[in-house]
Amino acid sequence: MQIDMIQQLQEAIIRTISPETLLWILIGVFVGIVFGALPGLTATTGVAIFTPLTFYMSFEVSMALLLGLFCGGYFAGSIPAILIKTPGAPGNAATIMDGYPMAAKGRAGEALALSTVSSVFGGIFSAVALVLFAPLLGNLATKFGSAEYFAIGVLGLVCVASVSGKSIVKGIAAAIFGMLLGSIGMDPISGVLRFTFGNPNLSGGIALVPALIGFFAITEVLLKVEDFSDINTQNILKVNKVLTNLKDCFKYKWLLVKSAVIGTLIGALPGTGPTIASWVSYNEAKRGSKNAKDFGTGIPEGIIASEASNNAVTGGAMIPLLTLGIPGDTVTAILLGALMVQGITPGPMLIEQNYGLVASILIILIIANLFMLGLGLLASKMFPYLVKTPQPILIPLIIVLCVVGGYANGSSYFDVQILMIMGIVGFILMKYGFPVPPIVLGLVLGPIIEPNFRRALISADMNPLIFFQRPISLTLIILTVAILYFLLKSPNK
After folding, report:
1. How do residues 344-364 score in pLDDT, each as one tens digit?
2. Where does the record place the DUF112 domain (predicted)?
3. Are 108 and 82 in contact (CB under 8 A)?
4. Is pLDDT at 233 greater than 50 in this prediction?
5. Which of 231-240, 257-266, 275-284, 370-379 is the most confident on average?
6. CA–CA distance, 430 with 181 (Å, rounded to integer)
C-alpha cells in the first residue's frame, strides 16, 4: 500500500509539473489576484464564474486553474484593504487594522510585501498539513455512517450560519432555505419527484454551478449597481519600495507559524472560513505581543497574523472536502461541484483508492503559492491601477462572464434562468439582512444531511436514539448544541 502511494505521488508530480498545468496555475493565480483586488469581488466569485470553463479540461488542468484562483483571490483581498481601507473580501478585514495605517505612513510597498510573504507561508503550511492529516482523517472517516454524516453536516451549517452575519437566527433561517432549495428534484430514498411543479428541468434538482454563480456573482453585481460608485482615485495610496524591511516576516517567524496553525485548524472546521480565522489570529497575536498597545497603528505583526491565517484556510478547508465530502467554506463548496463534474466523489475512500488525485491537489497548492509570491512582489506597483478599474467596464464584463459560465454548465438556457433567479433572490435576501453563504452551504449540504438522516433512522427501525448511541455522532451533536447555546446567549445574536 505504501509503495503504491509513493508511485501515485511520483505520477502526480510528473503530471502536475507539465508545461500546460504550470501555465494554468499561473493563469489561475493571476485571475485570482485580479478578482481579489477589485473591491466587491472575491475568490468565491471568481471560482464560481470560471468553474464551468473547466468541465472539458483534464483533472490536473481544471484544478490548476481553480486552485490557483482560490489562492490568488484569498491573498489579493488584502490589496484594497491596504491601499484604500476597503477589504477585497471579509477575510481580509483584519488586515485593514495595521495594513492601511502602515501604507498611510508611506510604507504601502512594505505592507503589500508582508501580506504577500505571510499569505504564501500560510498557504504552503496548510498544503503540507493537508498531506499529513488528510490520510489520518480519512481513516477516521471510514468509521462514519449515516448518523455521523448527518451530524457533521448539521455542525457545518451551524458554523457557517453563526459567522455569516449579525443575526444568528437569520443565518440559520438562510441555511434552512438553502436546504429547501437542495430538496428540489428526485427524492434520494423513494425516487419521487418533489417541488418540480411539473417542470422537467427541475427533476434533477437545481444545478449547483449556475446557482452558485447567481448567489455569489450576480448578487454582488446587483449590490454594486444599487450602490454605484467608482473608487476615489485620490485616496489610493502609492506603492513605494516593496522589499523594504521584508526581514520583519522572518523576525516574527513564530507568529507566522502560530497564525498558519490557527488558519489551518479553523479552515478544517466545516462552514467557518477565512473571516473568523483572520480575526482569531489577529486577536491572538495582539494578546501575546509585547507591543499590544501598538496594534492598529501600522505594525508588521498585525498584517502577518491576519494574512498568514487567512491564506492557511485554503489547505485547511480542503481537508474536510477531500476526506468527508463536506466543504470547509464557500469556495470549496464550488470545488465540490467541479470535482463531481470530473467524475470524482470526495469522501473517505478517495485517499485510499485514488491518492494520486489528492497528491496532485497538494502539489498544485504549493506551486500556486510560489507563483503568488513572484506575482505579488513583482507586480505590486501595478496594484493601485487594478484597484481603480472603472465600474462601468467591470460590471458588464462580470455579467457576460456569468451568463457564459451558466450556459456552459449544461448548454441550457434554463441554467441561465436559474443563475439570474438565484442572483435576484440573493440580492433581495441580502437587503433584508439574510446572509448568502449559509444558503449556498445549505444547498450543498442539504442533499448530504437529509438522506443520511433518513437512512440512519431506517437502519435503526426509526429509533432516533441512533444519533446518540454512536460516539462520533454524539460528540458532533453535543458540539453543535454547545455552539448554538453560546451563540444564542451572546448579545449579538
Report:
1. 878 777 777 777 788 888 899
2. 22-441
3. yes
4. no
5. 257-266
6. 17
Residue 175, classed as helix, strand or coil, is: helix
Q: How far apart are CA 99 and CA 114, in angstroms?
A: 9
Backbone angles phi, psi at 343, to 5 degrees: 85, 20
pLDDT-wise least confident of 86-90, 111-115, 233-237, 440-444: 233-237
Percent of the chain residues past pLDDT 70, beyond the cut: 88
Query: So where are the chain's domains?
Result: 2-147+233-432
Place of cell 497538494: 362
The three cell numbers locating residue 472: 462520533
| H/E segment holding residue 186 | strand 185-186
| Alpha-carbon radius of gyration of the chain | 22
Element (H, E) at 24: helix 19-37
For the chain, how many residues are written? 493
Q: Which long-range contacts (CB under 8 A, 24 or more apart) does 238-241 make?
A: 238/108, 238/384, 239/83, 239/108, 239/109, 239/112, 239/380, 239/381, 239/383, 239/384, 240/106, 240/107, 240/108, 240/109, 240/110, 241/109, 241/110
At which residue does the C-alpha cell 429547501 appear?
180
**Residue 237 carries which DSSP code?**
P
The Cα–Cα gap between 477 and 471 comes to 10
Q: Which of 181, 170, 182, 217 is nearest to 427 (CA)?
A: 217
CA 283 – CA 272 distance, rounded (Å):
17
* Residue 403 CA: distances (Å) to CA of 146, 377, 407, 412: 37, 34, 6, 11
> What pTM does this model have?
0.82
Backbone angles phi, psi at 261, to 5 degrees: -65, -45
- CA 435 to chain CA mean position, Å: 15
**Mean of all residue pLDDT scores within the chain:** 82
Q: What are phi and psi of 185, to 5 degrees?
A: 115, -150
Give the residues across from 193 on adjacent strands.
186
Q: Decide if 88 contacts 78 (C-beta within 8 A).
A: yes
pLDDT band, very low/low/confident/very high, at 234 (cuts 50, 70, 90):
very low
State the burial class of residue 228 (Cβ atoms within 10 Å of its Cβ: 0-12, 13-18, 19+).
exposed
Q: Please, what is the Cα angle at 144 between 140 and 146, to 5 degrees? A: 170
